Amino acid sequence: MQLGLSLDPSRCSGCMSCVVACLDQNDETGDGPAFRNVTRYEKGNYPETRISFLSISCFHCGDAPCRMVCPTNAIYRRPGDGIVDVNQDLCIGCHSCALACSFGAPHYDAKGKMSKCHLCATRVDAGLDPACVQACPTRALSYGPLEQLSTQKADKASREILAARVC
Is there a contact between 75 and 86 (Cβ–Cβ < 8 Å)? Predict the structure, then answer.
């Protein structure tokens, strides 16, 4: 079973709870790049404006391009749950993974080694949600098996299309 993350941007309020939870979970100070980032998008002109937010991290892709291009196999998929993680001892800092990742998930530490979201593997192993998912007050973030997440997205899209046709 491949686990992954999903975001419903229509629910994200930009509160940054996910970022703070991630920093706390990983004992990060916030001085360097975070595993999770929230970006603000503004659209329209006054008085018809809209602000939306996008919370992005590693989505632990089923066909993870970062993993495919890593020349040392430092990026691996955990057996059983498919969490994409990195063995920093094997990382040579070539940045191939950063170039291949559509989400900008790989980051490099002061030693030039890649690090990224590991889906709070210790929490997942203990039966808990990843810190970012648990902290999200609007439930914009979810995690679970990729097939289930894909089905939920497709069902939501179908409902929205039907609702638009009725109006």
Answer: yes
